[in-house]
Amino acid sequence: xxxxxxxxASAGPRVPLPYxxxxxxxxxxxxxxxxxxxxxxxxxxxxEQAGAATSTAAVxxxxxxxxxxxxxxxxxxLREVVLTLPPPTRGAPGQDMSGSTRKAxxxxxxxxxxxxxxxxxxxxxxxxxxxxxxxxxxxxxxQAVEAVHQHAAEQSGAAHRLAxxxxxxxxxxxxxxGFGEPASSGGALxxxxxxxxxxxxxxxxxxxxxxxxxxVTIGGEAHGVDALGTVWLAPDGSREAWASHLAAVDATHxxxxxxxxxxxxxxxxxxxxxxxxxxxxxxxxxxxxxAYRQALERLASAAAAQGPVGGGRFRELPLHLEPPGAExxxxxxxxxxxxxxxxxxxxxxxxxTEAGLLRAPTSTTAEQLYPAVEQLGARVLxxxxxxxxxxxxLAxxxxxVERKVMLRRLLRDPALTDARYKSCLERMLGSAQKLxxxxxxxxxxxxxxxxxSADRSVIDIAWNWQM
Length: 467
Hints:
This protein is 48% helix and 14% strand. The chain is built from 13 helices and 16 strands. A hairpin with a 2-residue loop joins strand 10 (345-346) and strand 11. The longest helix has 40 residues, at 366-405. It starts with a helix and ends in a 5-residue tail after the last strand.
């Protein structure tokens, strides 16, 4: 549990929850309440669920009440320790953890009877008494804004050189280069270094090796070529390793895959228009599979014979054709999660109102698809309309916040619910003047915890931030 707490302090927890430690320590001879590290018994710990609006004081009161309600004390010779630490939060650049997390961890060491470089002068006692659920914005933002300013100054020149180098690679070598994780979020300096390594690897190849027309992505964990013909290079590979991999790539096969992908995209658009649907698509890695291309041809023939579904009433409805491996899981989830049970599926097709699309297996026929669209399409479109209305309201609220707080841009963590995002925006409007004086026009993202983005260009603020 300690490892988990420290890891969450480094990366930021997915869901910020307080950590409750409950364990027993062997008391020293003479009844002293202190203990050394070697005498501690095995401990058990667990995370406590905390609601979005639960304050630290409420959590502490609940823990104290639970402790007071115990009918018996600890076993003889043991000392009971019950300690609730606030959710771990990321520190400012150059710090392993934030100030509040540092103090909280120090209080845990103090409770163990161990010396702590952070506990002292009453700091451990203060931590035990509890701190704010999240790092105070007044404490966090000045350091974060300064870090973003410094990083922007370092990156400005690199960004221009990176753009120039990518253009030169595309024009001179006819090679398209991009970045996948973790390189895509590593910032311009890291990407420039990687792109320079790629140029050096390409320049070291003999003239007989033609890589023109290829798409190279630097990211992932290993070298390889994906189903769409994209060449992947691991970021930690050396120039020599990259050159060796590029030399062994079947460039003709890659170019064929890339050309076929363009043909499939054109075919998808034509089939959607013929069926009277918004779009037809599948999972990226399955788009070149023979079964999917056969499904497109089959539906194109049916549309030519029968015309658009519903006389063209569903021109905004997306159709997702699912490969065989994904059909069973998505259909079962559609049955279990749909508001009307098994009626969400018709002829093997499922209405996904959350995603706003109709799902169908690649084996679907016109006899199955046309009735499914007629029966399920209106439900999907209604859900999509409601979602667009919510998104429009949130977008208008976001624009208000950007203008009032004078932010360069305001982003949102995709994992954040609409309710939490809206709650944060409304609170930001209410404190616009104070936030403007702290943020100084930076780019901000509403997230679960305070912190900086991986490339140090965006400041994350917790949706339930405290001033």
